[in-house]
Structure formats: C-alpha cells, structure tokens
C-alpha cells in the first residue's frame, strides 16, 4: 500500500509472530522517525542471532560461551536437575529464586503429530549426564499440557529404574491469586487429587 | 536474563512501540529458529529505511521516487486536495476507493504543548501548491481529536479568503456498525448537529 522500502519493512515486520498489520505499520513509522543508531542496534542484534547463538554443551540452554553460566557456577547443586522444554522455561524457574540446582533443556516436547519424537529432543544428552554426573533428583518441569505431560510420562518410564534416582514432577493445582470459580475442571481436579494436610 | 545475543535482541525488540517483554521474547525465539534468509530480508528492509526514505516533493507522502505514484498519476484530479496528517491517513482514505483527487501530507498536527507549531508542518508547501496548481477544493481530513481540530481550524482561517476555493471538512458522526448506546457524548452531539434530511 505504501511505496518502496516502508512497505517492505511493514511486510517483514508483519511476518513476526504476534505482530499484526497495524502493529507492523506503527513500528515501521516509529523506525522511520527513529535515530539511525537505534535501528543500528536492532540490526546488530539480528546479525548476531543470525550468525548463530551458542547453546550450552551440558544443559542445552542459550549461552554466551560453550558452557552456560548456571552449569559453570560451582554453587549450583549438580545433583538436582530440572528438565524443561525451552530456554524461556529456565528463565521462568530462575525468577522464582527457589531452585538451586541445574537445568536440562529438551528443546521442545514430544508431539508425534508434528513429527517430534524422542530423537528430536535432547533426551540422549540427559542420559549421558545421568551416567557422568551423580544426579540424585530429576525434576520434570515440562508444560502442563498434552505434549508436556506425554514428555514427562516418557521420561518417567525411561528414568524410573535408575538406582538411587528420585524423579519428581512440578505440582499441578490452582494458580495463586486465582479464583476457584474460574478454574477449569482439569486444574481443579488436579488441585483436589494433590491436596495436602495442613 | 538470557545470556549473550538473545537477550540483546529481546532488549532491542522490546524498545519497539507495542512490543512488550513477552512478545519480544517470543519474536526473538522465533528468529532464533528462523531461516537466516528471513532474518536477512528483515535486516535489508531495516537498512533501506535507515538509509532514508524518500518523501514526495509535492504531497509529502512516502515515495519510491521524487514524486509519488498518486501525484504522478494523470487520472487523479489535481484540483481537489485532501489534507491529512500522516502517510497512514493517505492509505486509510485510499482504501475507501471514494477519492479521486490528490493529497497533501502535513507531517503531523498542531500541538503547541509539544512544540509543534505551524512552521513544523508542511503548511508552507500547501500554500505554494495553492499558488502553482488550480486547486478548487481542499478537504481537511485531519484527525477528529484536539490537535486535528486545531489544525483544521488554523487551515480554515488561512484558506478561507482564497478566491474560488472551497474548503471542506470530513463529516463527524456515528461510526458505521456502531451502537448508539455506546457512542460518546461528543460523537453523538456531532452526529445530531450534522444530521441530514433524508
């Protein structure tokens, strides 16, 4: 609709997830009026990601070097490993400040319909860590949805015969600050079956 | 929160208007998994806009060459000029397919509190067009808000003594598909005062 480079930029921005035509237009006109140095920083950041982001050789999280900060940190307990689907799940767990162990990023969840089988996830690497480190507990922190549950079930079956290993799963239940009335049946059911004595 | 280039990209994306931290993260991980050629097209589009976008010498709209397609088109009536604030307003009016004249893009609206006076808008260029072309009608299509109304009032005062010129303003009233009950008082008041015999 616009002529020349402005429309190209709107088109490219509109291809990004969650950016509709109106937002793309708004961002494009913002950049049109922006300081070239600001655009430069965005371009540099894109180039670096395009050049390739490193992933930690141990846990699979995004990293600045071959090993990520968490896996390098001697204060983090190497015997407890929290298994998550994506790097953003590591950030979510870190924000709680409750977890002092290490992570293992699978790189997704089992989804046979999309052709994602166990070989597409970093499960082999997890087993290699089991052999190398003295892991005492594996916390399965995959998403509480169909794919995440299937992945957890698969890992439980694979890990349950390891001697001296405890496998745990994040608790399901009502979200804090939520309202019982608005909880879905599945969540409420889980909250009931997981009830604790106080 | 993330290490290295991923966090830089999230930070830069988060500076764009309408992109919150969650969206920035989502876009960054999308780009991380994207085809390098896709990132390349976005980079190219940014570079072109950074290199500078041309504006039509006549109307001030974004253009591919010195003169935009509309000002070059001999089928467009040069005697009727629709005055708008921004290039996106040209796109909005063009979408109606109702208008066969030409445009004049002011580049904003009067806003003395933000230091935007008449000298910051392309008003001088509009007067130059008045002298050069045989303009018969000027349609004031600035936004129906305080700044847009002030700009329209200013232009009406400046243009009303031009011989043989009609100055018009877009009609205010209820939006189509709207609900009378939910119209604000100002809009409903305008719709009332602008009522037409049927």
TrEMBL record, chains A, B:
PROSITE patterns: RECR, TOPRIM. Keywords: DNA damage, DNA recombination, DNA repair, Metal-binding, Zinc, Zinc-finger. The keyword Zinc applies. Coiled coil: none annotated. A zinc finger (C4-type) spans 56-71. Pfam families: RecR_C, RecR_HhH, RecR_ZnF, Toprim_4. The keyword Hydrolase does not apply. SMART domains: TOPRIM. InterPro entries: DNA_Rcmb_RecR, Rcmb_RecR, Rcmb_RecR_Znf, TOPRIM_dom, TOPRIM_RecR. Residues 79-175 form the Toprim domain. HAMAP family: RecR. Belongs to the RecR family. May play a role in DNA repair. It seems to be involved in an RecBC-independent recombinational process of DNA repair. It may act with RecF and RecO. This is Recombination protein RecR. It comes from Kutzneria chonburiensis. The gene is recR.
């Amino acid at each position: 609709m616009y002529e020349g480079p402005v429309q190209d930029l709107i088109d490219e921005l509109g291809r990004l997830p969650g950016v509709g035509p109106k937002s793309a237009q708004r961002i494009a006109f913002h950049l049109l009026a922006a300081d070239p140095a600001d655009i430069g920083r965005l371009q540099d950041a894109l180039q670096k990601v395009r050049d390739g982001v490193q992933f930690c050789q141990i846990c699979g999280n995004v990293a600045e070097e071959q090993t990520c900060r968490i896996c390098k940190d001697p204060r983090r307990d190497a015997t407890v490993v929290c298994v998550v689907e994506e790097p953003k799940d590591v950030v979510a767990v870190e924000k709680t400040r409750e977890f002092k162990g290490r992570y293992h990023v699978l790189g997704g969840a089992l989804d046979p319909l999309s052709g994602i089988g166990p070989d597409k996830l970093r499960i082999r690497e997890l087993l290699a860590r089991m052999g190398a480190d003295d892991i005492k507990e594996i916390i399965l922190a995959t998403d509480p949805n169909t794919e995440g549950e299937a992945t957890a079930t698969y890992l439980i079956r694979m890990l349950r015969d390891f001697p001296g290993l405890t496998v745990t799963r994040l608790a399901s239940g009502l979200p804090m600050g939520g309202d019982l009335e608005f909880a879905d049946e599945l969540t409420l059911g889980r909250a009931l079956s997981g009830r604790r004595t106080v």
